TrEMBL record:
Cofactor(s) needed for function: FAD
Record has Flavoprotein as a keyword: yes
GO cellular component entries: cytosol
Protein name in the entry: UDP-galactopyranose mutase
MF terms in GO: flavin adenine dinucleotide binding; UDP-galactopyranose mutase activity
Pfam families tied to this protein: GLF, NAD_binding_8
Annotated EC: 5.4.99.9
Length: 375
């Protein structure tokens, strides 16, 4: 292939969507590279040595309210209907998470029947806050201190290595609080899993004669010339961490596979959360719930949060935001480089938000252009 017009660094959702749009709509030659030995970024899935389809970087459930995003991705995959459910292990008792009426009745031996009764329960315990300054505020202002301590504080301290009071309110506010008995983890209109998995979706996204994909390749080792760069890696890495390293939270997984001769499942739901700090992991995922795979074995992932390892999560707190802004100011002045995705924008984004961001970035940078010069 001759030198590409555009190089895309990172073959996750941000990079793959940008590459697809640039090739399919603008007719430009795109080279996509990733330092990992596979495409799909953190959404990568593959069969393990037991033949069980797992998500290598932790459970990924697709959900969105943006029809534009589900319509776009539907061009590259069929879907399998799946509504995600999570139970929290509180002293050996499994209760629905997010908190709902069933959670309260199970934890407190109550028989609350109406939403009004549940709301009154919360109102009697909620702590008044003028402003939600952090994730502790976000929870205690809704459900009070006891539920916060039972279900949020320990989990959050393990997940982030920080107290909820040190994290942006948005982190714990991702989890809704319900007064009915809806026990789905997400409330979005569209909740599905790609029928053949995420990697297959990415293979179709990137299957275009103008797109070349090279995995196991570092940006620093690239010798090609190009007109435009799309950067979906960590923004501080692009600038050699000149203002200091942005913190990212990582994860380590322990895997357990057990025989399931009749195709049975090991857990009642896909994910069991462990909010207690007495347990070192945060959650246990059984992938066959997510994938629908019927198989003679089932694989569980025990998730151990870690400060070391691949960047999985930007850490939303004020000082990190301030540091990011210094890099973002450099990025705004950059000619011929587009920064997009969870690591390049240092935002705690779900997959659908990354797809929406990439579609918007494509339009902003390439959509209005007429010539092939895309700076
Ligand atoms: P990534 O997927 O991280 O892709 C960036 C890629 O760039 C990586 O593959 C990396 O190897 C590559 N790269 C970086 N720097 C370089 C370089 N210098 N040279 C070469 N390659 C480079 N979202 C949901 O919607 N639902 C979920 O249930 C969900 N669960 C999640 C669970 C976990 C454990 C995690 C960590 C995230 C979850 N997400 C979920 C979020 C989802 O993973 C992200 O929104 C999405 O994958 C981000 O895509 P991206 O392309 O921005 O980044
Ligand atoms: N959280 C918690 N207890 C739970 C589930 C979530 O305290 O049982 C908090 C925790 O801080 C977590 C955040 O809410 O990081 C967001 O949860 P989510 O399940 O959305 O996290 P992700 O799937 O992105 O890891």
């Amino acid at each position: 292939m001759p030198d590409p017009d555009v190089v895309v660094v990172g073959a996750g959702f941000a990079g793959a969507v940008m590459a697809e749009r640039i090739a399919a709509v603008r007719g430009l030659r795109v080279l996509v590279i990733d330092r990992r030995d596979h495409i799909a970024g953190n959404a990568f899935d593959a069969r393990d040595q037991h033949g069980v389809l797992i998500h290598r970087y932790g459970p990924h459930i697709f959900h969105t309210n943006a029809a534009k995003v589900s319509d776009y991705l539907s061009r590259f995959t069929e879907w399998r209907a799946y509504e995600h459910r999570v139970l929290a292990d509180v002293g050996g008792r499994l209760v629905p998470m997010p908190i709902n009426r069933t959670t309260l009745n199970a934890l407190y031996g109550l028989s609350l029947r109406s939403s009004d009764e549940v709301q009154a329960f919360f109102d009697a315990r909620a702590e008044r806050r003028e402003r939600l300054e952090n994730s502790e505020d976000a929870v205690v202002a809704k459900v009070g201190r006891e539920l916060y301590e039972t279900l949020f504080r320990g989990y959050t301290r393990k997940q982030w290595g920080l107290d909820p009071s040190e994290l942006h309110a948005q982190v714990c506010a991702r989890i809704p609080v319900r007064t009915n008995d809806d026990d789905r983890y997400f409330g979005d209109a569209f909740q599905c899993m790609p029928a053949d998995g995420y990697t297959a979706l990415f293979e179709r996204l990137l299957d275009h004669p103008l797109i070349e994909v090279r995995t196991g390749v570092e940006f620093a080792d690239l010798r090609e010339r190009y007109d435009h760069l799309v950067w979906t890696g960590p923004i501080d890495e692009y600038y050699d961490r000149r203002f200091g390293a942005l913190p990212y939270r990582s994860l380590r997984f322990e895997t357990e596979t057990r025989a399931t001769p009749s195709g049975e499942l090991l857990q009642p739901v896909a994910v069991i959360n462990h909010p207690s700090e007495d347990v070192p992991y945060t959650r246990v995922t059984e992938y066959r719930h997510l994938t629908g795979q019927v198989h003679g074995a089932s694989t569980l992932h025990y998730e151990y949060p870690s400060a070391e390892g691949d960047p999985y999560y930007p850490v939303p707190r004020p000082e990190n935001r301030a540091l990011y802004q210094r890099y973002a100011a450099l990025a705004a002045r950059e000619k011929g480089v587009t920064f997009v995705g969870r690591l390049a924008r240092y935002q705690y984004l779900n997959m659908d938000q990354v797809v929406a961001q990439a579609l918007a970035a494509f339009t902003a940078v390439f959509g209005a252009e007429r010539s092939r010069a895309v700076h």
